[in-house]
Amino acid sequence: MLTAFLACVMLSFGVGATSAWAEGEALQGTLTNNGAPVAGVKIKAFTQDGAPVGEATSDEQGKWSVPVPGPGSYKVDLDQSTLPSGVTVTNGRPSLTPSVADGQARNVLFPLGGGSGGTATGNQNQPAAPSAPSEWDRIANLFYSGIHFSLIIALAALGISLIFGTTGLTNFAHGELVTFGALMAFLFNVTIGLPLVLSGVIAVAIGAGMGYVQDRAFWGWLRKRRTNLVTMMIISIGLSLAVRYLYLYFFGGDSRAFSEYNSQPGEKYGPFLIAPKNLVADAIAIAVLVAVSMALLMTRLGKATRAVADNPALAAASGINVDRIIRLVWTLGGGLAALSGVLLGVYQNVSFQMGFQILLLIFAAVTLGGFGTAWGALLGSLVIGLFIQFSTYWIPSELKNVSALAALILILLFRPQGILGRRTRIG
């Protein structure tokens, strides 16, 4: 039933979601340093699988362009050895993964600095930076990136932690709820043409409804049959695989962007260089996290939820409708996951496996903070997000997720119950 419902929804993407390859797609940009064009810099483009697509060298006006075979997500590398002496990529990101839409020439932004400073942009009319950012500026930007990513992870981690706390289920299909939220926002924003903000609100509402439907039609039925938790966990893995490839079939394997807020340039806030869309996303995430946390502490439903998480049998004996509370938690978890997916789609575009790609980080955050504790999920997300971003200061960005999971293992060797988890007797 659940898979059939998803199939009906995904059919709404129709032909428009699977665009044909067309001529005219390209990656391009204009490299400048303090307003002066930077010539002779090599740019290379690759597919997501690492196959070379082409390369270009910036001309006397700093312009470069690499045609690509069709729409999709590509990896673009700036060869730093070809930069003039003293000029560097100021944000420490010489490799980017932009997405190209059907028939689109995508501008790629590289901030350059050195000497008196400067920028590399896809628009030569962009204002030049007044001075080259220092190492402290880079550290400040890594710190902000870590906080921003932490908030996105925290939304999904809070939902999965509440579900585990009330049911004991380790739900490996939670990542597909994150993807579902992003895909619904994409459907209403790109395919139907609604504003992204309205599309996001609708996607969160549908995500919450999907959480309710999952528990009422599937997980609740398994609980009534007294299915053990290990079996339910294995079922969640199978459900995750089925739904993910359903997404792939209808949405396609390309990474795509929303129709609004793409390639938004950053603005200076002291040492921080932040795109305004990220500040709005941060404000939304913080407001939702605070509201949910306060509701858990101060409302009757929140207290009932905590009672069910502590002892379901005692909660039922005291008159609490345990099934109703669990269903409420699934609804809340679905909405939080959908919101996480929408914000993640704004941050790094939409793909069929975006939820799966951060699922291990979500589990790492929940495990690190302490399974089943809402505050632990928030704290664990903060630690994981900051560690991932700061690790790129010393190691290649491709290894940042590995470093976070390695840190998780080391921490749990000394505190197996997590930061805020409680010790339990075994045996």
UniProtKB/TrEMBL annotation:
Statement: the UniProt record of this protein carries the keyword Ribosomal protein: no
Transmembrane region(s): 142-164, 194-213, 229-250, 279-297, 328-348
Topology class, membrane: Multi-pass membrane protein
Keywords: Amino-acid transport, Cell inner membrane, Cell membrane, Membrane, Signal, Transmembrane, Transmembrane helix, Transport
Classification via Gene3D superfamilies: Immunoglobulins
CDD domains xrefs: TM_PBP1_LivH_like
Homology family: Belongs to the binding-protein-dependent transport system permease family. LivHM subfamily.
Name of the protein in question: Branched-chain amino acid ABC transporter permease
Protein's organism: Dactylosporangium fulvum
